[in-house]
């Protein structure tokens, strides 16, 4: 039966990890998949998470099923983290939500919900966007269009062109926005630009679909939530897919949240019943473990403060790695000005070189990053930065 199917190419991001593992060059450098790494190149379990694991081991008394909506403590804690404790939408009981298997699971649940609302639904995504957005959202049955976002030549956001396209979007269309730390470009909207997006969302009556996978990695947990909170507090409907993979370091535990801000409580109840039935129809209920850990951290002041400190440390280290890369590129004679890397936010930078140059660096120097020129900043360290800079300079 299966021979009729075509052999597929490796995933553009996850496939890089496999290629990196197979490379025998002892000086290989992995800047591919978006995972945080320390100076030794390890992805350790956060200390707050390790402590929460001990608490969970003590308090968990059963492995019976949880419900399709997941852990309610996790859901409430995450909504406060994302929307703030004073969120009008939350206080008015206008937000439906389920714990999801990772940010991907959240994106998929919400996409399925959008298809249930309108099987001809259209989602506008940034050009470029995360490589998995289009297959993930598109295979739920939604049509995909793109809006201009980033100009490689000037390494900056094409805000005027983006707004021009958003002004043509039709009522009921969906516009996917990265809450912070845009993946793949690291180029984030300013507060003033978010304010303008709110105005065009009101004018065109499109539905903002916010993907927030790197909260805290840009400027801080509250600072990074600015655009999302602005839209949630000022629009009748917004949907949010959040991930705990990066900021809690819970990658393999698959922890995320799908949230739907609705116009009133009656609609919230409808949306809640729908997303629970979608979850039941795909995987029944999310894995319990990671959500339980996040619940423990968010509901304990000491653990919460420790976790915030760890997020700050990861963010500040990534900022210093950006500066180190820019300096090394300069010191090694780069003919291109890479100072824009210092302005980009979060885990990724878009180096604005061609796919041919990326592949040449991979083939000649065993430096692995996505063809688009996206690098995982957290994969840089004191030991590899000079080799990286020299490899980049060699293809300019
Ligand atoms: C990434 O963009 O590298 C991460 O979000 C991991 C993934 O699943 O692609």
Textual characterization of the structure:
- 44% of the residues lie in helices and 14% in strands.
- The protein has 396 residues and is an alpha/beta fold.
- The protein has helices at 14-22, 47-59, 72-83, 88-91, 102-117, 133-138, 159-166, 191-204, 226-234, 265-282, 289-298, 301-331, 340-343, 355-365, 385-395; strands at 29-30, 95-100, 122-127, 143-148, 150-151, 156-157, 174-178, 207-212, 238-243, 256-261, 348-350, 367-368, 374-376.
- It has 2 domains: 10-44 and 308-395, Aspartate Aminotransferase, domain 1; 49-299, 3-Layer(aba) Sandwich (Aspartate Aminotransferase, domain 2), CATH 3.40.640.
- The chain is globular.
- Helix 8 packs parallel to helix 9.
- The model has no long low-confidence stretch (mean pLDDT 97).
- The strands form 4 sheets. A 7-stranded mixed sheet has the order 2-10-9-8-7-3-4.
- Helix 9 (226-234) links the parallel strand 8 (207-212) and strand 9.
- The longest helix is centred in the last third of the chain and has 31 residues, at 301-331.
- It is built from 15 helices and 13 strands.
- Bound molecules: (2S)-2-hydroxybutanedioic acid.
Q: Count of helical segments?
A: 15
What fold name stands as the CATH topology of the largest domain? Aspartate Aminotransferase, domain 2
Q: Provide the helix percentage.
A: 40-55%
CA-CA gap between termini: 48 Å
Q: What would the average pLDDT be, to the nearest integer?
A: 97
Please name the fourth-level CATH homologous superfamily of the largest domain: Type I PLP-dependent aspartate aminotransferase-like (Major domain)
- One letter per element, helices H and strands E, the order comes to HEHHHEHEHEEEHEHEHEEHHHHEHEEH
Q: What integer value in Å does the Rg equal?
A: 21 Å
Give the percentage of residues in beta strands.
5-15%
How are the strands of the biggest sheet laid out side by side? 2-10-9-8-7-3-4
How can the largest sheet be summarized?
Answer: 7 strands, mixed
Bound molecules: (2S)-2-hydroxybutanedioic acid
Overall CATH class of the largest domain: Alpha Beta
DSSP, total strands:
13
Query: What structural category characterises the helix and strand content?
Result: alpha/beta
């Amino acid at each position: 039966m299966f021979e009729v199917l075509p052999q597929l190419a490796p995933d553009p991001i996850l496939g890089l990890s496999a290629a990196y593992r197979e490379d025998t060059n002892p000086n290989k450098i992995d800047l591919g998949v978006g995972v945080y790494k320390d100076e030794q190149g390890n992805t350790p379990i956060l200390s707050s998470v390790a402590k929460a694991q001990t608490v969970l081991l003590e308090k968990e008394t059963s492995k019976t099923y949880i419900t399709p909506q997941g852990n309610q403590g996790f859901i409430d804690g995450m909504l406060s983290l994302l929307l703030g404790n004073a969120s009008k939408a939350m206080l008015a009981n206008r937000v439906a939500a389920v714990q999801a298997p990772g940010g991907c699971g959240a994106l998929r649940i919400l996409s399925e919900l959008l298809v249930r609302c309108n099987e001809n639904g259209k989602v506008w995504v940034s050009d470029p966007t995360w490589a998995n957005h289009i297959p993930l959202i598109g295979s739920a049955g939604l049509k995909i269009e793109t809006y201009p976002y980033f100009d490689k030549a000037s390494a900056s956001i094409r805000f005027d062109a983006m707004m021009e396209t958003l002004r043509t979007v039709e009522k009921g269309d969906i516009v996917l926005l990265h809450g912070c730390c845009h993946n793949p470009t690291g180029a984030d909207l300013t507060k003033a630009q978010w304010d303008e997006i709110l105005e065009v969302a009101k004018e065109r009556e499109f539905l903002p679909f916010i993907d927030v996978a790197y909260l805290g990695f840009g400027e801080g947990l509250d600072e990074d939530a600015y655009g999302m909170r602005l839209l949630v507090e000022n629009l009748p409907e917004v949907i949010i897919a959040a991930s705990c993979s990066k900021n809690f370091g819970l990658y393999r535990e698959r922890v995320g949240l799908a949230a739907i801000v609705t116009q009133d409580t009656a609609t919230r109840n409808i949306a809640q019943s729908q997303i629970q039935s979608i979850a039941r129809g795909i995987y029944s209920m999310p894995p319990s473990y990671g959500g339980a850990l996040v619940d423990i951290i968010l509901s304990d002041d000491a653990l919460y403060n420790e976790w915030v400190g760890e997020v700050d440390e990861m963010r500040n280290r990534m900022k210093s790695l950006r500066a180190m890369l820019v300096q090394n590129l300069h010191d090694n004679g780069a003919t291109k000005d890479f100072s824009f890397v210092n302005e980009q936010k979060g885990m990724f930078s878009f180096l604005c070189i061609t796919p041919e140059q990326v592949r040449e660096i991979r083939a000649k120097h065993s430096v692995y990053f996505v063809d688009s020129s996206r690098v995982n900043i957290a994969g840089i360290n004191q030991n590899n930065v000079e080799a990286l800079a020299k490899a980049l300079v060699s293809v300019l």
